[in-house]
Amino acid sequence: MPIVDAQPTPFEFDLDTTALLVIDMQRDFLLPGGFGESLGNDVAQLRRTIGPMKRLLEAWRATSMPIIHTREGHKPDLSDCPPAKLKRGPMIGQPGTFGKILIQGEYGHDIIDELQPLENEVVVDKPGKGAFYATDLEEVLTKDGIKRLVVTGVTTEVCVHTTVREANDRGYECLVLADCVGSYFPEFQQAGLRMIAAQGGIFGWVAESPALIEEIAR
Ligand code: TIU
């Protein structure tokens, strides 16, 4: 079995039971002038993941392992957006630079050009921060016999963390790639990664993408 150098211990995986999760690499979060930046966030902190992610996707696509992309967003009538979320995210559904913010079908809701999914890759639309809540992700993984997840995307302490915690509780082993996840806040990036691997890997493992690419390219 391939083994990747990781924290807190090496991460062992096999090509038949591992999937790549790409969380919310959407224009609304990553594009300059978009929703994320309009909230005062530094999108460069997220955009540094694009190069490593492109290289990872290229290597992963050369294997038979599945790739699953997620997008956070809501139906145009906001019927799947809890009032409590809307109250603290009042821009959701409002017109932004790239269409109505976080609304399915809008330009800003879709994945950035550099990382557009291929036709055979699954895209899971999710109304929450976690990728399991109110989605068919668990069904998709079970059907493919997936037991391990390599997790990438944005943001580290919000949608990546929520998803890793949900996955860990469901029995999946998660490897988070430090250079392929991003937070608007450098201190949350650091702490978020440390939280995953602390206490003997309380939620999972953390590694750098070149170490994984080397293993899957063997
Ligand atoms: N995808 C995701 O993390 N959604 C967020 O709202 N993240 C923030 O950091 N705001």
TrEMBL record:
Residues 18-202 form the Isochorismatase-like domain. The keyword Hydrolase applies. It comes from the Bacteria. Keywords: Hydrolase. InterPro entries: Isochorismatase-like_dom (IPR000868), Isochorismatase-like_hydrls (IPR050272), Isochorismatase-like_sf (IPR036380). GO terms for molecular function: hydrolase activity. Signal peptide: none annotated. This is Nicotinamidase-related amidase.
